[in-house]
Specification:
Layout lengths: L6 E10 L2 E11 L4 E5 L6 H8 L7 E6 L2 E2 L5 H11 E5 L10 H10 L7 H14 L15 H13 L5 E5 L7 H18 L2 E5 L3 H7 L1 E6 L2 E4 L8
Parallel strand pairs: 3-8, 3-9, 6-7, 7-8
Antiparallel strand pairs: 1-2, 1-4, 4-5, 9-10
Helix pairs in contact: 3-4, 3-5, 4-5, 5-6
Length: 232
């Protein structure tokens, strides 16, 4: 029997104040796949990602992530999924300037469940910072880092609890093209070498194609994006 998809959406619908944004989104992402979603501003990409990430549970249709049925599970199960099995990376880095990078990575977990002591959390932070190539800056505050370096710290924070899935909303949106490519390479390495499943919203379609399949959100549905050779 083939394994269950990491992410499965069937007929997902979402409206704001009676205006439909998602109009029946179907999607299956196999474990270990890398899928990018593009589309014009306002088409509903963040709306879609927030639903998949369990941040917005008011939707129509069916959403399953890591086997968890988001429309029907308890709030506690969805919170557990969000905190333990999914990693989030956003355009804004959301780092605290008065802490070191190491503390930024470990911070969310100082307060989580008490199953990790502070020392162990900081050691794990060093491990994931190393993994994304920024281990040497673990003791610096984020204010001393470039945008690309800050995003590596944010990725390390998402990796802390060994997520099965990473959801990323324009993680390279505020970076120059070369730095964006480096961050994309980090994602690709985490996908290929660590087997993490990726669902990524991006405007950088060429980099997205190097990573895997690209879909386009258009008129509330996901369609195959046209080939990059097509004239703009
Ligand atoms: N909380 C909200 N309340 C009302 N309308 C909203 C809300 N969030 C988003 N919308 C609307 O839903 C539509 C989709 O928004 P969304 O943020 O998902 O777009 P997007 O594709 O992520 O755009 P961008 O590329 O600019 O980030 C937009 O028309 C937006 O105005
Ligand atoms: Mg958005």
């Amino acid at each position: 029997m083939s394994s269950a998809p990491a992410i499965r959406l069937v007929g997902v619908e979402k409206s704001y104040d009676g205006v439909a944004v998602l109009r029946g989104v179907d999607l299956e992402i196999e474990p270990g796949a890398f899928l990018s979603v593009t589309g014009p501003s306002g088409c509903g990409k963040t709306t879609l990602l927030n639903i998949v990430g369990g941040l917005d549970r008011r939707f129509g249709g069916r959403v399953e992530v890591c086997g968890c049925d988001l429309g029907h599970e308890s709030d506690a199960s969805v919170a557990h999924l969000r905190r333990r099995r999914i990693g989030f990376v956003f355009q804004a880095f959301h780092l605290l300037d008065h802490l070191t990078c190491r503390e930024n990575v470990a911070l969310p977990w100082f307060f989580a469940d008490g199953d990790l002591h502070r020392g162990a959390a900081l050691r794990r932070a060093d491990e994931v910072l190393e993994r994304v190539g920024i281990g040497a800056r673990a003791g610096d505050p984020p204010t001393r880092l470039s945008g690309g370096q800050k995003q590596r710290v944010a990725i390390a924070r998402a990796l802390f609890h060994r997520p099965e899935v990473i959801l990323s909303d324009e993680a390279t949106g505020s970076l120059d093209a070369a730095t964006a490519q480096q961050i994309n390479d980090v994602f690709v390495s985490l996908n290929r070498d660590d087997g993490i499943t990726f669902l990524v919203v991006t405007h950088r379609e060429r980099a997205a194609r190097q990573a895997g399949r690209v879909l386009r959100l258009e008129e509330g549905r996901l369609i195959e994006a046209e080939s990059p050779e097509a004239p703009q």
